Amino acid sequence: MKAFIVLLIIDLLVVAAVAIRRFRAGRKSARNDANCSGPEAVLPDLPMPDVAGDNSGAAPYDKKLYVRSCEYMEQKRPFLVESFTLDDFAARLYTTKLYLSKTINHYSGGNFRQFVNHFRVKYAIGLFEKNMSLRVSDMSELSGFHNVVTFNNAFKLMTGETPSAWCRKIRTLRILGK
Fold it and tell me: 38 pLDDT exceeds 50?
């Protein structure tokens, strides 16, 4: 009985914290640039939706949560930790994992894993462009993937080509001076 009461109190505190966070976020002005693309102009654009132009009827704080989650991923880079989970991410954004998951699914068109892999692939591309002597296995490990197979699948899904083919193409373009 005591454990149930403690869990109930914790749940109420979490709900209250989320409500306060949403209320405060609602009072701040919305950011004009709502997509997840960062300042890295050299990286190819991976498919991410235009949140600013979305008129699907979703609540405005959903957009703000999505923008905050994208900004957090780009600034803090939690995706570099292999064991990064939706629970961890929701706690860092002061929201529930169900609400965060639904928001990411709605705006990104993919699930949480695909959302995280987007940032991991983007980071791997940046690593390779800075150091072209990196092997695919190094890129995979340094960008937070559990194994090379997962990295290959995510990379191909995001870019349309395998990491090794993409690396060969970039090296050739650099040699030719393009």
Answer: no
107-135 as b/e, with b when 16 or more CB fall inside 10 Å?
bbebebebbbbbbbbbbbbbebeeeeebe
The answer to whether residues 121 and 159 touch, using CB atoms and an 8 Å cutoff, is yes
For 31, which DSSP code? P
**Cα–Cα–Cα angle for 94, 97, 98, rounded to 5 degrees:** 125
What is the DSSP code string of 34-103?
A: -S---S-TTSPPP----STT--SS--HHHHHHHHHHHHHHHHH-GGGSTT--HHHHHHHTTS-HHHHHHH
Give CA–CA dist 33/39, Å, rounded: 12
Asked whether the beta carbons of 65 and 100 are under 8 A apart, the reply is: yes
What is the structure's pLDDT at 62? 84
Averaged confidence pLDDT in the chain: 78
Chain segment 99-109, per-residue pLDDT in tens: 999 999 988 88
For the chain, the distance separating the N- and C-terminal CA atoms, rounded to the nearest angstrom, is 69
Question: Taking every pair of C-alpha atoms in the chain, what is the biggest distance, in angstroms?
Answer: 72
**CA–CA dist 24, 27 (Å, integer):** 5
Give the residue from 92, 96, 100, 99 showing the smallest Cα distance to 75: 92
